[in-house]
Backbone:
């Protein structure tokens, strides 16, 4: 129970803390202090509003993180101009946490991997998948660049306190079933607006058993439920992950401050969603919506032009290890392109050391520098009319990855790997055995120390 | 600084479907364009290739559920401002898109079932204060949700920039040259 006796959920508690109140009610509008503000190439769109607001300096340069991630490197004059605008702003305002070409990553990956997000933080970012950082036990939400200009200038943002949906995941996932399949199941069940204007909190033995890399996929795709934020309460795994990171913000002393934050036992949730992980099978979201979810085994798709393994949803080292293990000694099907985009330069380097890049390349795939890649249809594997892509990303609305007449299907890395090999949408259980799957969590090969 | 907001908005209805995401409103290939007029040339191109050339200033978008879902890209709203869309009246909106509209002073109103009461091309009038849409062809009045206090504050101020400018000025931490410049109109057409 909170100080004045009102039971609150974890997201409510975070907003209450940031607004300086003992408690807040659902629906209440508060002015909240921001802990971390992230902007990618959208920073180019906040430069003018920032100036027009009359701001002369940022509220706290140590709390701003700027990763270049959509066009890496710039692919045309327009994106080159965006980058030039950003570099000038970074110089003018002395922003220390700038991740430029050569040392960067997808913005959400940088936020968590570099240790910028503490449990209990309020995090905002100029990208809809900012929700991903909620896996650190934070309230993380996407906003537009004009709004971000206001945050840069004032360090605050108004928030309407959302109701919270509780998702309970129990049962043991039977690999190759992964957290990607869990989150697809949820979106399939509640719809792409099932959590509109709400927070989503994950709990249960299934969540406790997941490592951080699996949890990030869950909170990442709460965006596709329409959620304002997605959160996994902090536990020992969160703390271990954070302590192993570079803690670039220098806020390491704050790690434990809100590490024990939980929803009150008698907190009211808007809805309970129960998922039994043990009965799930590999799933796919059909064109053209993340909510059109079916078992892979029930979908016949005989021609796949491109397989994309990348995006903030599923391009961490562990995802790419799964791909590489399954690709070993196999080839990408003729007529199918495999595009791989690691989520950060750091992950790229680990893939280099472990031989993952070699394996993908020898199989006939294209292993690229880290960026959003083909996910958003702007570069890096854009689809032509009538082309079909099977992707580990998060959205497949019309024209998402290219031409309005292209189609994309959303899957897990294991399903993507099997599909790349056969050239058809393939349930990985049809190609691989339990033993094949058992090794996929290990490094591809031992890395020389 | 009040009264920048036209609370009664008349225009030609353009009726759209459900779950139109921001990739359809401003496709990914145009993300490197950030000027409203440039983006207006691609407004809703992902939904209907012919849409941009058919838009007239003052058109009113009548949308289904979950309009603006997907990306946080402000391009979607900037394109509407560049095309001089009079108002967006829809059955429900995705949160970031809705917020971006308020911030860029794009009038927007939530009206359940509105697509059932309006046909493409109908002359309609939105009353933002009352939260209603009047179909001038059928004389039907459709009730929506009146705007929240926050929405009124942002739209009346002409968008977030003006609100923050005032805030910073009050705190004394403002660029005085900028503060002395004339207030912005609702349209940002640069």
Residues:
């Amino acid at each position: 129970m909170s100080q004045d006796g009102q039971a609150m959920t974890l997201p409510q508690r975070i907003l209450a803390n940031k607004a300086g109140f003992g408690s807040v009610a659902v629906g209440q509008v508060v002015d909240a202090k921001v802990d971390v503000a992230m902007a990618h190439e959208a920073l180019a769109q906040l430069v003018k509003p920032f100036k027009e607001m009359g701001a002369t300096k940022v509220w706290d340069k140590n709390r701003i993180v700027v990763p270049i991630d959509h066009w890496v490197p710039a692919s045309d004059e327009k994106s080159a101009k965006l980058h030039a605008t950003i570099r000038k702003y970074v110089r003018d305002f002395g922003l220390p946490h700038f991740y430029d070409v050569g040392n960067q990553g997808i913005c959400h990956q940088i936020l968590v991997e570099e240790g910028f997000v503490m449990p209990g933080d309020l995090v905002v970012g100029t990208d809809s998948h900012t929700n991903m950082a909620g896996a650190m036990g934070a309230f993380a939400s996407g906003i537009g660049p004009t709004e971000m200009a206001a945050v840069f200038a004032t360090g605050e943002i108004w928030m309407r306190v959302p109701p919270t949906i509780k998702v309970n995941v129990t049962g043991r996932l039977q690999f190759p079933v992964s957290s990607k399949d869990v989150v697809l199941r949820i979106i399939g069940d509640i719809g792409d607006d099932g959590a509109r204007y709400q927070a989503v909190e994950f709990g249960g033995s299934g969540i406790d058993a997941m490592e951080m890399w699996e949890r990030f996929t869950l909170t990442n795709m709460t965006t596709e439920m329409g959620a304002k934020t997605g959160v996994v309460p902090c536990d020992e795994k969160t703390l271990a992950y954070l302590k192993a990171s570079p803690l670039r913000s220098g806020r390491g002393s704050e790690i434990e401050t809100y590490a024990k934050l939980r929803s009150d036992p008698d907190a009211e949730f808007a809805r309970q969603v129960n998922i039994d992980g043990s009965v799930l099978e590999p799933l796919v979201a059909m064109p053209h919506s993340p909510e059109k979810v079916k078992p892979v085994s029930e979908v016949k798709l005989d021609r796949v032009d491109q397989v994309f393994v990348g995006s903030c949803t599923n391009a961490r080292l562990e995802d790419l290890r799964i791909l590489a293990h399954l690709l070993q000694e196999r080839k990408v099907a003729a007529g199918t392109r495999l595009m791989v985009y690691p989520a950060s330069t750091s992950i790229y380097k680990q893939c280099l050391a472990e031989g993952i890049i070699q394996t993908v390349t020898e199989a006939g795939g294209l292993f690229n520098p880290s960026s959003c890649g083909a996910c958003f249809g702007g570069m890096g594997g854009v689809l032509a009319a009538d082309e079909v892509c099977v992707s580990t990303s998060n959205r497949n609305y019309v024209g998402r990855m290219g031409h309005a007449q292209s189609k994309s299907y959303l899957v897990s890395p294991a399903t993507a790997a099997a599909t790349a090999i056969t050239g058809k949408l393939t349930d990985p259980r049809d190609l691989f055995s339990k033993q094949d799957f058992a090794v996929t969590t290990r490094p591809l090969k031992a890395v020389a120390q | 600084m009040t009264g920048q907001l036209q609370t009664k908005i008349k225009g030609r209805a353009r009726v759209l479907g459900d779950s139109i995401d921001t990739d359809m409103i401003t496709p990914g290939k145009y993300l490197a364009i950030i000027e409203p007029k440039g983006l207006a040339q691609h407004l809703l191109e992902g939904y209907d290739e012919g849409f941009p050339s058919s838009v007239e200033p003052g058109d009113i978008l009548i949308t289904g559920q979950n309009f603006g879902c997907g990306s946080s890209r402000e391009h979607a709203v900037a394109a509407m401002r560049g095309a001089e869309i009079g108002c967006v009246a829809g059955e429900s909106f995705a949160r970031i898109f809705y917020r971006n509209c308020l911030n860029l002073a794009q009038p927007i109103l939530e009206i359940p079932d509105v697509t059932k009461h309006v046909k493409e091309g109908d002359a309609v009038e939105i009353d933002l204060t009352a939260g209603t849409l009047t179909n001038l062809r059928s004389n039907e009045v459709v009730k929506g949700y009146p705007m929240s206090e926050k929405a009124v504050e942002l739209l009346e101020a002409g968008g977030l920039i003006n609100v923050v400018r005032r805030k910073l000025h009050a705190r004394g931490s403002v660029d005085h040259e900028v503060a002395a410049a004339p207030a912005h109109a609702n349209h940002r057409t640069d």
